[in-house]
């Protein structure tokens, strides 16, 4: 077996060199490739029947199949003209950090297993906490994504305010623009749907703080226990930022944990020009933040930050007999004592490498470019007839629809869906739909540092061409 493994290692070395060449070529040709490459059912059926061979195959053949038959399909979230959902424009720096971390395969659950990696992660968390305005008692953890970051923070909130006797009375507050992961996480940690209040948003899609106060007072009068308010810094649909200072004041008045879902928008804290938009975020008890969105990291790099690190330790610290040798003091807190995972990779090293390479100023400029891209898209839309700006450009997101007066709402709905579908089939750009106040709208989220002004303006021009073509067809 050892001889066989040695032979495989040699083949893997050769495959790594060949794959690296192909990957570099793919990156160079990225602009010429489709932003979305759909797979057909015949190809899916072929994949289903690959099976597992009795004897090992040639490594190079397997690598080629991965590249040609698997990685090639789906949405290319790192394409400069992929504007759907929240793109994932991972930088080469993050890619390098991810490869190196995987290559050395460090167990980063405890300080003892990976002291240097743990030190870097903790120091980076400390620096990120400083950007939020947190003090020396703050802390946090690198996790897999915004869903896990939100849930980790809400577990700490639950344990801070509620106990086993009062858990059934706990109430949490979200907005109608909150991310679905928040409600999912609340249910997972024992808060049923009938104890989750959805607060309406204003015309700018921000949580209405007056309605929030009313809901809290009604629940208190009913003998319930409000324990968490989840504000959003950069909603997925529109990039809206809830009134953080107003919400913080309400939470402080009633003794409620304030969590900010900043999975998308928290990155604006690193922008010198726009960080003022997140005024008040430092008053929150916890913040979620995705590195694999607007910090240009490969997937699986997110953070949860808390004002008081002990809140995480109280919720997650355990010490079975088989882990006693890994004990550490709280100044060198084990990552496993701050969150759900025991075994975990050193997710923060790729972000550390990226920030070392770019510097904070370089990261600031890359984030600010997204604001400009959305502004260019909105400017181009305003030059065209019949386009309605439903939510103006903010945090690199703009929502709009083709809405000529001679069409019914149902016809507008169908037409905008058709425009999106045609653009996706075209492959030039990834532009998808969402719904705002009952309207089917097109949405551009543009955060790729390599996306150009011509990319966004040409995307709008193509959307307009489809709109004119389909409008004429509807009227005929």
UniProtKB/TrEMBL annotation:
Top-level division of the source organism's lineage? Bacteria
Gene Ontology cellular-component annotations: cytoplasm
Needed cofactors: pyridoxal 5'-phosphate
- InterPro entries from the entry? Aromatic_deC, PyrdxlP-dep_de-COase, PyrdxlP-dep_Trfase, PyrdxlP-dep_Trfase_major, PyrdxlP-dep_Trfase_small, Pyridoxal-P_BS
Q: Locate the N6-(pyridoxal phosphate)lysine modifications and list their residues.
A: 293
Which keywords does the record carry? Decarboxylase, Lyase, Pyridoxal phosphate
Which GO molecular-function terms appear in the entry? carboxy-lyase activity; pyridoxal phosphate binding
A Pfam cross-reference name = Pyridoxal_deC
Give the protein family: Belongs to the group II decarboxylase family.
Protein name stated in the entry: Glutamate or tyrosine decarboxylase
Q: State the organism of origin.
A: Parapedobacter composti
